[in-house]
Specification:
5 strands, about 350 residues, 3-stranded antiparallel β-sheet, elongated, mainly alpha, 15 helices
Length: about 350
């Protein structure tokens, strides 16, 4: 079968150069006919961002093995922030000026959401460059990183009042979140088998979350599976909770609902936490601020940055290489010091 060149060459040298490039494609097993290439270029030239995104996202999820929550967030950024304005534009028509105009239309009161949407768009168009659909990535703006909000940690007195204001079967949930710096999904997913009273540790292996209304149990955020030593002063509370309130069996939930299921953050907040924080005098306190409280207390105990990262599960692959000297033994020392802090606080409040 004969194949025609895409054009008539003015010189023999130009024709030989074209033939040489065709032979190279054949050697690399990348050759398709010039007619097919022309058709593909025509299709690529008319491809919109919406069409490309529909192909790009499933591929990204599969290649990067993204978690369901991350995939759900990406879909939300696309459907709410990116595609309504840019979706019908052809890829080749999206310019730096187009991106700037889009950025100015985003809600300035949601800087973190805007940053995440821009990062996703930039990553997607970077792939389009790799796919040779566009020559350069039009996302060239440097967006100022928004200041991360870290809530005010609870004082020990506020923490005590908060625990007291909770139903008895949920008091330990507050103590573990604070003293062991756990996330809500990690606490809600704790099972009887995750508690080791003899060693004085809790194994954080899973977290529960609801994604688009569907319950999902997976590894903790950032795959931060870890072993956390609990402060000795709450050991008795843990033992009593296991005897009175936890479900039986190694897979029994530590904090089941009255119907035997798992708490969802909004329900827990509206039914119990909101009232308790009001009683504690901290109406601004979020559940996640208890984790911040735990980190602050651990730092006060003398924990190093490496030890804090290990305890909170903040290590990445690169960080793990730097902070690999953080060990379970040092974590127990942190836990013991936390109990000392609690005892000192209790002693300071006793009348002479």
């Amino acid at each position: 079968m004969w194949h025609l060149a895409p054009e008539t060459f003015t010189t023999k040298m130009d024709a030989e150069g074209w033939l040489s490039s065709e032979r190279r494609l054949i050697e690399w097993d990348q050759w398709i006919s010039p007619a097919q290439r022309a058709a593909m270029r025509k299709l690529d030239a008319t491809q919109t961002l919406k069409v490309y995104a529909a192909e790009w996202l499933p591929q990204r999820v599969a290649v990067r093995q993204l978690k369901p929550k991350t995939e759900s967030e990406y879909k939300r950024y696309l459907s709410r922030l990116i595609l309504p304005t840019l979706g019908e534009l052809r890829l080749k028509d999206i310019s730096p000026a187009t991106i700037r105009a889009w950025l100015t239309k985003l809600n300035p009161s949601a800087p973190r959401l805007n940053q995440n949407a821009y990062a996703l768009l930039k990553e997607m168009l970077a792939t389009a460059v790799e796919d040779e659909l566009i020559d350069r990535n039009p996302c060239r703006e440097r967006i100022k990183k928004p200041v991360r909000h870290i809530g005010e940690p609870a004082t020990l007195e506020e923490l005590a009042r908060l625990v007291e204001a909770m139903p008895e079967r949920l008091r330990l949930m507050i103590e573990l979140a604070a003293w062991c710096a756990l996330r809500f999904g990690e606490v809600a997913e704790l099972r009887r088998g995750d508690i080791d009273l003899k060693e004085g540790v809790i194994r954080i292996r899973r977290a529960v979350q609801w994604i688009d209304g569907v319950k999902t149990v997976a590894a903790p955020k950032a795959d931060s599976v870890r072993v956390v030593a609990f402060p000795p002063h709450i050991g008795q509370a843990i033992k009593e909770h296991l005897e009175k309130h936890a479900q039986w069996g190694k897979d029994g939930l530590l904090f089941p609902t009255t119907r035997g299921g798992q708490y969802r953050a909004p329900t827990f907040h509206s039914s119990h936490f909101r009232k308790a924080r009001e009683a504690a005098g901290r109406p601004d306190l979020r559940f996640h601020d208890l984790r911040h409280t735990g980190a602050t207390l651990a730092a006060a105990s003398g924990a190093t940055l490496a030890e804090l990262m290990q305890r909170l599960g903040h290590s990445t692959v690169s960080a793990a290489l730097v902070y690999q000297h953080a060990t379970q033994g040092s974590d127990k020392r942190i836990a013991e010091r936390l109990s000392e802090i609690a005892k000192e606080s209790a002693g300071a409040g006793d009348p002479e």
